[in-house]
Design a protein that fits this description.
The two termini are about 60 Å apart. Strands 1-2 form a two-stranded antiparallel ribbon. Helices cover about 65% and strands about 10% of the residues.
Amino acid sequence: MRTQQPLALRAAAGPSGLKVWLHCDSMELAGELLQDLASYLGVDELSSTASFPAVMDQFRNTLSKVEACSAARAHVEGDTATLCANIKACVVRAEDARLLGDMAALKRQHRWAVTQEHVLLNWGFEGLQQWDGTAHADVYRV
């Protein structure tokens, strides 16, 4: 109607009551027509079935994208947790080296911790850049 798409409406009275078939490509239009018809007929409850294959295909595509994003997020969270644990362990090793007076090991552990921290920060900013599609994260790159 509004979208110039075909609309077919068929009704038949049977022993179990009135049966109405509504055929259109718009889910919104079908819902509005069904609600208006039920209101006009004074029907409080009704059973219905619907099939919108194009909408379901679009929904499946969106759902697969959401699942891919969720899997990527879980992967990044795991990598981030591993990096954080490595940095914490490195700080502990550096403190042990400091207490033992091993300055070479202390410097080595400190450099390694800083390197890991840079990796962690760069991953976060690269993810931010990929997520929102902007380049403002480059300002904070270490």
